[in-house]
Amino acid sequence: MATRLIIFDLDGTLLDTRLDIAQACNYALRQCGCPERRLEEYNMMVGKGISNLFRAALPEEMRNEEMVMKMKSHFIPYYGEHIDDSTRPYPGIIRMLDLMAGHGIMLAVASNKYQTGTEELVRRQLGSERFVKILGQREGKPLKPDPDIITEVMSAVPGISREEVVYCGDSDVDMQTGMNAGVRTIGVTWGFRTKEELSAYGPWHLAANAEEIAGAIIADSE
Predict the structure, then answer these.
(1) Which pLDDT does position 221 carry in this prediction?
(2) I need a surface site. Which of 109, 123, 185, 193 has the fewest CB within 10 A?
(3) What DSSP line would sit under 132-143, residue for residue?
């Protein structure tokens, strides 16, 4: 069955957000009297929601809910002010989105980034009007790899079947999300994780650049 809807992860897939996230988290760590983390350490910390980011960044002996909330109180205001100081779409992303939209393929975002941050970055860097649904982490909603977020996105497209949906991301969490939702997956190799990590989950396609995503989806939709 032809692809009608492609749902994207955000961080590490559409946008290179690592530096801004790392700087905001290091700011929060400093405010809490904790040592900073190296930029490359954040590759394995992002993608599981900000509370899990803080737990991973904090020293082991300080990983408690009080410190997580304290980190959040410093991180959110700082990140809000610096959310796209360095963040940009990966090469070819805007053209890829336009190509697929031009072929009648619907686009959506499903991220573990908190909702307001997800919406703001999509608006600033990608254009909210391109997407039928933009979902991030919200109170009372499970994080990926729970498939609930995929089902919720699909509800914005009446009559769509899981065979017509592809989920695209850069991490094991994304590949698991797609599997749990019963949809095909595309793993992108330019993000925060390795090709080997993605391959372990048997994705429908592995993409080395944005053009390969467009090619695979457009060919499947015709």
Answers:
(1) 77
(2) 123
(3) SEEEEE-TTSPP
Q: Is pLDDT above 90 for 222?
A: no
- Same domain as 121, residue 190: yes
Q: How many domains does the chain have?
A: 2
Where helices occur in the chain by DSSP H, the ranges are: 18-31, 50-57, 65-81, 93-102, 115-121, 148-154, 172-181, 195-199, 210-221
* Rounded distance between C-alpha atoms, residue 208 and residue 191, angstroms: 10
Cα separation, 125 vs 89, whole angstroms: 7
Asked if 123 and 167 sit in the same domain, the reply is yes
pLDDT of residue 106: 98
Same domain, 9 and 76: no
- Lookup result for tokens 């002996």: 61
- What is the domain range of residue 33? 18-81
Closest CA to 153 of 4, 42, 44, 51: 4
Same-domain status, 67 and 119:
no
Question: What are 185's strand-pairing partners?
Answer: 167
Which of helix, strand or coil describes residue 191? Answer: coil
Q: Which residues have a catalytic role annotated?
A: 9
CA distance 222 to 213: 15
Q: How big is the chain, counted in residues? A: 222
111 in the same domain as 35: no
Q: Provide the sign of the torsion angle of the four alpha carbons 137, 141, 142, 147, taken in this order.
A: negative
